[in-house]
Structures are given as structure tokens and as C-alpha cells.
Request: fold
Amino acid sequence: MLPDASATSAGNGTPPQDASLHALMEALYADLRKVARRERFRVGAGATLCTTALISEAWLKLQRQSGWQDRQHFLATAALAMRQVLVNDALARGAGKRNRGEAPLPLDAGLDAADAADEQILQVNEAVGRLAALSPRLAQVVECRFFAGFSDAETAEALGVTDRTVRRDWLKARAWLYRELGEAAPSDGDA
Reply:
């Protein structure tokens, strides 16, 4: 168990939570960078949201958390943070495309305009919010698999369940999401 955020390190006045967050970030940075890069390209994040920016934004969100319990808790929270960053980026680009009565922008300024991928992120985010009311664990599986790009094994570790449970939950969550979003569900091989 990691130290409580309310205590301070002996002698240096730094909360242990900060030290534990930095230690976890150092230990998991390569993994988080790989996941962030894959997810950024998968969802078509804009040119302004590079891999490093996604990790940095997620890290800033993680700093506001307290009481890291273990690696599992950190990974689950990192998945949620990446979801929030991707959704906020999609919302910002969507707002930018409406121009709100401002002067016309140069042609190259439209490179970050919202597209179908942004719309998909926002729709899935809203649907995951509704799913969380029905089954919080299914919503967490979607956060880990869809928004953070975790594998079954990584998701199982983050949520403290077995790989088999993750596969079962992922099938249920995907079926629910496809029904909710009005799309045809893919076959098992499309996961």
C-alpha cells in the first residue's frame, strides 16, 4: 500500500503522495507513452494533442488524486484521466469549428477542426456515463479498453479481476454500447 497523501516525507516536506506518483510515473512512463500514442492515433486526436501532451495532461489530472494504493489503482485512474483528456480535446475542437461569430480563420487553422472521430469519442463518452449508472465495472472496462487502449491483461490488472472476467465484461459492454449508439455490433474477431 502506498503512503497516505496527508503525511509528509521525513525531512523534505514533500507529501509522500507526490513521491509515490512520481515513482509510479517513472516506472510506468514507457507503458503509458505506448498506450497514449496508440490511442491518440486510434481516435484521431488533433495535431495539437501529441502523445507527450496526452500523457502530460493525464499526469496533471493524476496529481490531483490522493492516496495511491497500488499499481492497479494508478492504472485504472490513468485510464480515466486519458478518457477525460481525449473527450476535452474533442469538445474543444468541436467548439472551434463553430467559430462563434469570430473573424474567419486562415486555411491552415482548420487542421484541428472536429471530425467524425471527435463525434464518436463524445458519443461513446456520453454512453459510458449512462452505462456507469447501470454497471460501474462495465464502464471501467470501456474506459480501460476504449479510452486507454489497455489489453485484456492490462485491464484485468487495473481493475483487479481476471482476464476472463474482462473478456466477458468487454463483450457485454460493447454489445450495450453498439445498441445504445444504434450501430451494428462487430463479430468477435473485430474486438
The first helix runs from residue 16 to 43. The chain has one domain: 16-98+113-190. Residues 16-98+113-190 form one domain. The helical segments are 16-43, 51-63, 71-98, 116-134, 136-147, 152-159, 163-181.
